[in-house]
Amino acid sequence: MDDDGDVGDDDADDGRRAAARARTDDSRLDFASSDFDPVLALKKSSNATPPFPRMRALDTVRQCRRLLPSTGEKVGREHGAGRQTRGLASFAAQARAKQRAERFTKEDAAFAKRERLCDALANSKHAREGPLRVLRDARERRERVTIVTRHSRGVRGVATAYVEAFDKFANMILTDVEETYTVRVMRVVERERTGTTDVVGGHSRTQTRCAPKLERRARRLQQIFVRGEQIVSVSIPPS
């Protein structure tokens, strides 16, 4: 071949190589292609344009996780390219969650129809007649009651409060409680010895001992629970 023919063949080879390189670069910069190269697309000279250029970038792995299939799902191509198929474990978990939701809904509806515990106790046979009727009337009329309490050594004090709930054993829940009670405290008492007239250093002989003394105190509480065995009497003071 002559020299002109050789030069023409070289130019044709260079053109084919440039076209092949361009096609390769295009596929590596195509976001939808399997040959997409993210490192090459991040270069400034690549001029790669994402399919959604105004989309907000995801900063953390947790944000990217919601775009991926869940643990019970698997990606397959049995029914078309790119379609996701769910596994049996995912369907079973969804069915169990639906059953739990239906059960909780039924329980909530049944619980809403139930009578309040304090209402049931106040409307019981024991509260409609007998001594507990005083507590039921005070609760319904929203009247304060006076309750005398005790401890192991006797009467402890007196409390005035509203009755929120009670049962047949006189266990009560009281609110807005004003209580006056006594506490036994030990005091140091000095007493002169009996039968002695000796004087030592100008002072008569005395002895020191600890003696109990009842101290009266008062307090106000927002809500308390009182056991029936600690109650002496319950009365409604005159208005």
TrEMBL record:
Domain of life: Eukaryota
Residue stretches making up the Sm domain: 132-239
Ranges annotated as biased composition (Basic and acidic residues): 14-29
GO biological process: mRNA 3'-end processing by stem-loop binding and cleavage
Positions of the UniProt region annotated as Disordered: 1-31
Record carries keyword Ribonucleoprotein: yes
Keyword vocabulary terms for this entry: Ribonucleoprotein
Protein name: Ribonucleoprotein LSM domain,eukaryotic/archaea-type
Lineage start: Eukaryota, Viridiplantae, Chlorophyta, Mamiellophyceae, Mamiellales
